[in-house]
Amino acid sequence: GYKNIILDEKDGILTITINRPKVLNALNTDTLNELENVVRDIERDKEIMVVIITGSGEKSFVAGADIAEMKSLNIHEGRNMTRLGQCVFQEIENLSRPVIAAVNGYALGGGCELAMACDIRIASEKAKFGQPEVGLGIIPGYGGTQRLPRLIGKGRAKYYIFTTDMITAEEAFNMGLIDKVVPHGKLYEETLKIAEKIISKGPIAVRMAKYAVNNGMNMDLASGIAYEAEAYTTSFGSEDRIEGMSAFLEKRKADFKDE
Ligand code: HXC
């Protein structure tokens, strides 16, 4: 039983809904701790193939860290808070299963940072992104100063962090911050379709592709290429490789076993 998170598991898809609608799903310490527990459980659960993260209500994905809680913290607690959020978001980024953010509204501060820690971002046309932290006298502390420039470039990242300007879904799509924009009422349905499509592919291959992209982004090109060869070889050694290639040649649907 979680207080601030709703879990829904169906057909290999785990949907995590951040559920504090009265404060637009702001992330307090309790919620981050709950999220960390959920993420750790996923790693041990063989049934879960794809994870979706979304926010409850019509208006907000996550409106950031909980400002009321943050205001009362001393500097040591402030450091613990940034480290906790950073750790949880890194665990999400490194999960062996793909994680899709279904951004249903405001993704501000820690909310934008949570979305950026996911593998893929699908947004409602009403979603709005931004890093408002400097307006509160702090800087983004859940990875925003690192992941935003990696997604949209250094100059743009500084522009949006310094000005705190909000970014519409359409703008976010055009600059590569998000990967698809869909009608508001169809967000979950469209996200499920994407999750189902991923599930139909070879799970070891998807996992190795995730590792190759994630780890390669932190390497020089030659090291990344070498890493790719090793991840490729792992996929090549799987039973699923034989199944995938046989299914193609036999003109049938592959039945992958994650082996
Ligand atoms: C705590 C929040 C909150 C937040 C909204 N609320 N965001 N409470 N922390 N991040 C609360 C409001 O206080 C209000 O409570 C209720 O949710 C509804 O919000 P409103 O402001 O009335 O709604 P609206 O006018 O529609 O404006 C929506 C909004 C605005 C534009 C999203 O709420 C907003 O600017 N929120 C703060 C966004 C922000 O600065 N996020 C970054 C946080 S810093 P009441 O009681 O009045 O109903 C951060 C740092 C991460 O994320 C790294 C830390 C280490």
From TrEMBL:
Q: InterPro entries of this UniProt entry?
A: ClpP/crotonase-like_dom_sf, Enoyl-CoA_hyd/isom_CS, Enoyl-CoA_hydra/iso, Enoyl-CoA_hydra_C
**Name this polypeptide is given:** Crotonase
Instruction: Please verify whether the record's keywords include Lyase.
Output: yes
Q: A Gene Ontology biological process annotation?
A: fatty acid beta-oxidation
One Pfam match, given by its short name, reads: ECH_1
The answer on whether this UniProt entry bears the keyword Disulfide bond reads no
Q: Which CDD domains does the UniProt entry name for this protein?
A: crotonase-like
In the record, the note on similarity to other proteins reads:
Belongs to the enoyl-CoA hydratase/isomerase family.
Keywords, A to Z? Answer: Lyase
Recorded GO molecular functions are: hydro-lyase activity
Q: Write down the superkingdom of origin.
A: Bacteria
